[in-house]
Amino acid sequence: MVCYCMLSFPPPKRRVSASVPPLKAPGKIAFDVKVFLDSAGLGRRVEKFKAKETIFAQGDPAKNVLYIQDGGVKLTVVNRTGKEAVVAILGPGDFVGEACLAGQAVCVATATAVTSTSVRVIEKHEMVRALHEEHELSDRFIAYMLARNIRVESDLVDQLFNSSEKRLARTLLLLAQYGATEHPQKTLPKISQETLAEMIGTTRSRVNFFMNKFRKLGFIQYNGGIHINDSLLSVVLHD
Q1: What is the pLDDT of residues 168-219, one digit of tens each?
Q2: Which of 32, 35, 159, 185 has minimal Cβ neighbours within 10 Å of its Cβ?
Q3: CATH code of residue 202
Q4: How many separate domains does the chain show?
């Protein structure tokens, strides 16, 4: 399985830049997409989903762009033989379904809520109009898509060259939004080991082994959810 997540931690000796170019010039106030969407009246409809609930399914008509406000979304694809692969894990501030803007008629993946999730639904014609008329939104959206392409490349490197232990540590850090925000969400909502195994392409027993190892070393704690300590970074940065 291939998991495309929200940020990249490059493997040692095969350096791929983990940083994403800043989306604002020094001294300039950052463009807040959520505030803009609120003020512009874009996507007034907000939908909430429970963990494991389907947001849209592979083969559904592609007609909306979704902006993730809270929670997380897993994208999976099933081939003709029924084999499923996780192709992306997205979180707050990410868009999903944006391929409809390029003419995609049907959804090529299934989007499932990883935890309790809320998304803002923006109809295709609304998003197209806003991108043409609002230059700040257009610039921000282009920067987002470029950053996402960088993530895809880095995630492929991670999948090819890193061990399952490093991929698990990296995924936990990604879910906590390390590097994507100034204030990481250090306590994750409850997420099953089966789901983590799907994300990194290994077995649940291997995930259980590494989670226990991380807990004994003080990298994580269990307190209803999973509490991520900064020391977990040492796993992905260790040669």
Answers
A1: 998 888 888 776 666 677 787 677 888 888 878 889 999 999 999 999 999 9
A2: 35
A3: 1.10.10.10
A4: 2
Strand residue runs (E) in the chain: 45-49, 54-56, 64-70, 73-78, 84-90, 95-96, 110-113, 117-123, 187-188, 220-222, 226-228
CA dist 123 → 45, 105, 140 (Å): 10, 14, 18
The β-bridge partners of 220 are 228
* Residue 172, domain extent: 163-237
Do residues 93 and 180 make contact, with C-beta atoms less than 8 angstroms apart? yes
Q: Say what the pTM is.
A: 0.70
pLDDT digits (tens, 9 = 90+) for 111-132: 999 888 999 999 999 999 999 9
82 and 149 together in one domain: yes
CB-count burial class (<10 Å; 0-12, 13-18, 19+) for 30: exposed
Other CB atoms within 10 Å distance of the CB of residue 183? 6
The reply to whether 175 and 147 lie within a common domain is no
Does residue 49 form part of some domain? yes
Asked which of 98, 133, 157 is the last residue of a domain, the reply is 157
CA 172/CA 186 separation, integer angstroms: 10
Q: Which residues lie below 8 Å from residue 138, measured CB to CB, with a gap of 6+?
A: 131, 132
CB 73 within 8 A of CB 175: no
